[in-house]
């Protein structure tokens, strides 16, 4: 299939496909297009964003079945073959012979590359080593000075995952401010967000004229907080870690959208918690990733979905004992049966 045809056919499933590199598009045409068409026949849309518990379980099932078929003795050997140079040739042959790409993505309506990255994150024993010690942070700085952004090499030297060392370096590479945001920092954040949104809008419209760049932006509200490139914004702000930037931007948006009203205090706050628990209980979903948080935002007020998610997180942490060991539906049931009557009485 030629590149233009591949782009045209993939665009039906991935609207932003023309912003993806040509080499990635060629791989997707080979690995994903047939799968996407099969899912379409079943009425299933291609998904992006966070993986649900159901999808994580499907990945585990696919990996376990592939190990059983091939006799490879661990998921780490299968997904991190370069760590086992003496077995690399044999594992690569088995992966090709038993169609590893096809088997891994079975039953999951997502691009193969995203499924593969998710599997590597789930099965990498180096991903779960707890907090970095002071010594590890110093080593990370030293290794980065020697090898730059070669995270694969650095991860092997530190026995941490690629993602872990990259994200930790992003956090410690400069003096990060953990105190209250200054007016100057907030302005930098707002300018950085405007810059990336303006750039994205111009790319989508195919128009980057200076006349357009100097005009006020008129965009859908969702673009103000969905899938923003936070590491890029972090670099533009300079004094804050990307997660701090994301949290602060949610606060800025919430203040703008609510005109500074305190929606989660006093009787309004109690009512918001009651509404949130009731709506989540009515939805009867099994996984947090199946919740339409956008739709839920009006339980609190005109706020971004990240604000609602943050309030739900605080609610479960403060009210649900052993919440980490409970499923999402068990957490909601507990809040509905135990916490809701208490909140209603308080109100």
TrEMBL record:
<protein>
    <submittedName>
        <fullName>TTF1 factor</fullName>
    </submittedName>
</protein>
<dbReference type="InterPro" id="IPR017930">
    <property type="entry name" value="Myb_dom"/>
</dbReference>
<dbReference type="InterPro" id="IPR009057">
    <property type="entry name" value="Homeodomain-like_sf"/>
</dbReference>
<dbReference type="GO" id="GO:0006363">
    <property type="term" value="P:termination of RNA polymerase I transcription"/>
</dbReference>
<feature type="domain" description="Myb-like">
    <location>
        <begin position="124"/>
        <end position="172"/>
    </location>
</feature>
<dbReference type="GO" id="GO:0003682">
    <property type="term" value="F:chromatin binding"/>
</dbReference>
<dbReference type="InterPro" id="IPR053078">
    <property type="entry name" value="TTF1-like"/>
</dbReference>
<dbReference type="InterPro" id="IPR001005">
    <property type="entry name" value="SANT/Myb"/>
</dbReference>
<feature type="domain" description="HTH myb-type">
    <location>
        <begin position="124"/>
        <end position="161"/>
    </location>
</feature>
<dbReference type="Pfam" id="PF13921">
    <property type="entry name" value="Myb_DNA-bind_6"/>
</dbReference>
<dbReference type="GO" id="GO:0005730">
    <property type="term" value="C:nucleolus"/>
</dbReference>
<feature type="domain" description="Myb-like">
    <location>
        <begin position="173"/>
        <end position="253"/>
    </location>
</feature>
